[in-house]
Amino acid sequence: MSTTTFCPVSRTLGRRPEELLPAVPYLLGYHPTDSLVCLFFGADDEMRLSSRVDWDTTRLATHDVVATLSERAGNCDAHSVLIVAMDPQQPDWEVLTHLCVGFLDRGLTIDWAGECRAGAWRGLECTDDCDRHVLDPQCVTVTRLIAEGVAPAADRDEVTAEVTAAADQLDDDVAVSVPLHPGGLEAWRDEMIPACLAVLERGGALSDAEIATFAVGMSDIRVRDVVLWRLTCGGHRPGIADPQTWQVVSAVLRQAPGVTVAPVAAVAALVAWQRGEGTRAMAALPRAWAADPQHSLAELVYRCVDAAVPPTVWWQVMSGLDEPTCRHGEIPHE
């Protein structure tokens, strides 16, 4: 029904429309059109969740939209919501009113509700003679998000292109050519972990060898889990939510050999989730399912994003483990 994204770090944002509406593309990851956008906040004034639903779906199934988004808001411990119809093709103020009533019935406070079209906004509280409120693209909230390294794509197609197979996708024989350590599988794993981390550290344009190394490394669950543990809570830089991590992982996914696509796509979706970018996570997951419909990590990320499970839950799980457990798959005996 909707594309959901999260606030990856605790942000206390103003709740007035002039502070938030110009920032919607930054909070969603792209510029939405003909959409319902809901921004949910906790009692501590921190933004917990942003969701987008096709406006036509909202008009036709308002009750279902409210029920679904309210459940997700509950998973994030949200207490209030800002509701906006973004460039709706068929404006409908009655629908906005029904949305407000529905959220109120489910215990949420309404911060603001209205419509944003052609660079200006009007709220349900505006009178007929109210002047147009023009968006300020350089408002404080936008400036702050830019300073944090947040940059929206032009549209959803541009987001999808970040994880679409490139014309020069590597052949499977490139993956096979990644050499096995002469000392055997465990020695190979010990070699691959720092090699994969080195690819993330360097960033930039990747060679075929680097792409193959990272893709093959993510295909081994022991290598993958140690790399993810170090990125999440092992103090490695860049971390799992760093922009460079996404840039590298998505670049690898575009060119990954076919036999490695499912694990790389699952890792890409996980990184997007940790960055609070549900749109990008949901763009990467179909590539994982196309290659392996039963991929466990892809299924885990999907369930979490679909239910609006906060990214911090992953950190809590990983921080309860240690590197030897991730490396060997069980708690080593003394």
Strand order of the largest sheet: 1-3-2-4-5-6-7
Helix fraction by DSSP (H/I, runs of at least 4): 40-55%
Strands, count:
7
- How far do the termini sit from each other? 50 Å
| Radius of gyration, in angstroms, nearest whole number | 22 Å
- Would you list the SSEs in sequence order as H and E? EHHEEHHEHEEEHHHHHHHHHHHH
The major beta sheet can be summarized as: 7 strands, mixed
Q: What's the rounded overall pLDDT mean?
A: 90
Low-pLDDT regions? 6-10
Form type: elongated
Tell me the fraction of residues in β-strands, as a range. Answer: 5-15%
Number of alpha- plus pi-helical segments: 17
Structural class: alpha+beta
Structure write-up:
Strands 1-3-2-4-5-6-7 form a seven-stranded mixed sheet. It contains 17 helices and seven strands. Mean pLDDT is 90; it is low at 6-10. It has 334 residues and is of the alpha+beta class.
Question: How do the helices and strands line up, and which of them pair or pack?
Answer:
Elements: E1 2-6, H1 17-20, H2 24-28, E2 35-41, E3 47-54, H3 55-60, H4 62-75, E4 80-86, H5 93-105, E5 109-117, E6 120-123, E7 133-134, H6 140-147, H7 156-161, H8 172-176, H9 185-202, H10 208-218, H11 221-233, H12 243-255, H13 261-274, H14 278-291, H15 296-306, H16 312-319, H17 323-328
Parallel strand pairs: 4-5
Antiparallel strand pairs: 1-3, 2-3, 2-4, 5-6, 6-7
Helix pairs in contact: 4-5, 9-10, 9-11, 10-12, 12-13, 13-14, 13-15, 14-15
